[in-house]
Amino acid sequence: MTHIYNFSAGPAVLPKEVLTQAAAEMLDWHGSGMSVMEMSHRGPEFMSIYKAAERDLRELLAVPDNYKILFMQGGGLSQNALVPLNLLGHKPAGATIDFIYTGSWSAKSIKEAGKYANVNIAASSTTSVPPQSEWRLTPGAAYLHMCTNETIDGVEYDFDGGVPAARQDVLFVADMSSHILSRVIDVSKYGVIFAGAQKNIGPAGVTIVIIRDDLLGQALPACPSAFDFKLVADNESMYNTPPTYGIYIAGLVFQWLKAQGGVAEMERRAKAKAALLYAALDLDDFYQNRVAPANRSRMNVPFYLKDESRNEAFLAGAKARGLLQLKGHKSVGGMRASIYNAMPIEGVQALVDYLNEFAGR
Ligand SMILES: *Cc1c(COP(=O)(O)O)cnc(C)c1O
């Protein structure tokens, strides 16, 4: 059988070791006689799974003690509403949220936030990250929202190690759905970080929220209780039933990440994988990537064939070689290779070999 490499943008590839372990534990977790799916979320077995997952994620991202980690449901998109619902309760009516618009995901965030607040686009570009010196911020804005890796447009923040310089007067909220755990970050620079799990963490259905604890308890009255960050935090993500199986798989991924050498090692690998792939795309004009080199995503690599009439032939040839899910997002067309933490460099090399073969090099 051809070796399969899955380049899906999400839900995406998971480490083989994790899936193998989950399969072995499917019917009987650690001699409990139960599948993880069948356990009470308040029982000692699941509580041990939950605590380990929380502790390992805290260790991997060096999350400071004054931050809470929430395991929620609803996906990354729901956070576009839940963040304003949770942060605007103590703000005057008509408060403004600043946004950096860098592509499709920040566009969705802007649209949703407009239901709850005034929105100001402080800077915009979909082929680069506007330099921080050019951001036109609103004095007294409730917060600044940024999508630090645009999954569709392939634009990733890359100044100051990928993290904007912290500003005392600006509260940063970051959607890190598609690159969390792929690079070292300084959590203390942010008020809120959120990420849907299905890109770099685990199965769809879990959403991670990391929030500085002084921001809890500021929800608007209309915020649904099950999505009130303070209630979720006070109940260790068990105000209502959490996505237990997804948390279990995420926990196995965290263990896998630790065994591989943690986030610094993932960053080293991501740099190597991205360099290999972009070099093949840049060799001549057969393929094109339109993002400014400094902001090219290490996780999501969109590219176009110069001759787009060959798109179907490219995808068919890729599939025949076991290179799956390379079709670009429907809104932008072309191709996209997502090379998350669980994609081995061998998979990127196989794609590069095919890129060269298809280009007749
Ligand atoms: C995938 C993604 C989302 C949306 O996640 P859902 O779970 O589908 O709601 C949000 N933001 C970014 C950057 C993403 O890549």
From TrEMBL:
Q: One GO CC annotation, please?
A: cytoplasm
Q: Where in the cell is it found?
A: Cytoplasm
The record lists the catalysed reaction(s) as: 4-(phosphooxy)-L-threonine + 2-oxoglutarate = (R)-3-hydroxy-2-oxo-4-phosphooxybutanoate + L-glutamate; O-phospho-L-serine + 2-oxoglutarate = 3-phosphooxypyruvate + L-glutamate
Query: How many cofactors are bound and how?
Result: Binds 1 pyridoxal phosphate per subunit.
* SUPFAM superfamilies reported for this sequence: PLP-dependent transferases
**A Pfam family recorded for this sequence:** Aminotran_5
Primary enzyme class: transferase
- Major location, coarse class? cytoplasm
Which residues are recorded with the post-translational modification N6-(pyridoxal phosphate)lysine? 199
Q: Which GO molecular function annotations are given, in alphabetical order?
A: O-phospho-L-serine:2-oxoglutarate aminotransferase activity; pyridoxal phosphate binding
Q: Which cofactor does it need?
A: pyridoxal 5'-phosphate
What does the entry give for GO biological process? L-serine biosynthetic process; pyridoxine biosynthetic process
Question: Which biological pathway?
Answer: Cofactor biosynthesis; pyridoxine 5'-phosphate biosynthesis; pyridoxine 5'-phosphate from D-erythrose 4-phosphate: step 3/5; Amino-acid biosynthesis; L-serine biosynthesis; L-serine from 3-phospho-D-glycerate: step 2/3
Q: Which InterPro entries match?
A: Aminotrans_V_dom (IPR000192), Aminotrans_V_PyrdxlP_BS (IPR020578), Pser_aminoTfrase (IPR022278), PyrdxlP-dep_Trfase (IPR015424), PyrdxlP-dep_Trfase_major (IPR015421), PyrdxlP-dep_Trfase_small (IPR015422)
The entry marks the following residues as binding pyridoxal 5'-phosphate, namely 105, 151, 175, 198, 240-241
Residue intervals of the Aminotransferase class V domain: 4-351
Q: Keywords assigned by UniProt?
A: Amino-acid biosynthesis, Aminotransferase, Cytoplasm, Pyridoxal phosphate, Pyridoxine biosynthesis, Serine biosynthesis, Transferase
In the Enzyme Commission scheme, what number(s) does this protein have?
2.6.1.52
Q: Binding of L-glutamate: at which residues?
A: 42
Q: How does it assemble?
A: Homodimer.
Stated role: Catalyzes the reversible conversion of 3-phosphohydroxypyruvate to phosphoserine and of 3-hydroxy-2-oxo-4-phosphonooxybutanoate to phosphohydroxythreonine.
Per the similarity annotation, which family is this? Belongs to the class-V pyridoxal-phosphate-dependent aminotransferase family. SerC subfamily.
What is this protein's record name? Answer: Phosphoserine aminotransferase
Q: What is the lineage of its organism?
A: Bacteria, Pseudomonadati, Pseudomonadota, Betaproteobacteria, Burkholderiales
Q: Which gene encodes it?
A: serC
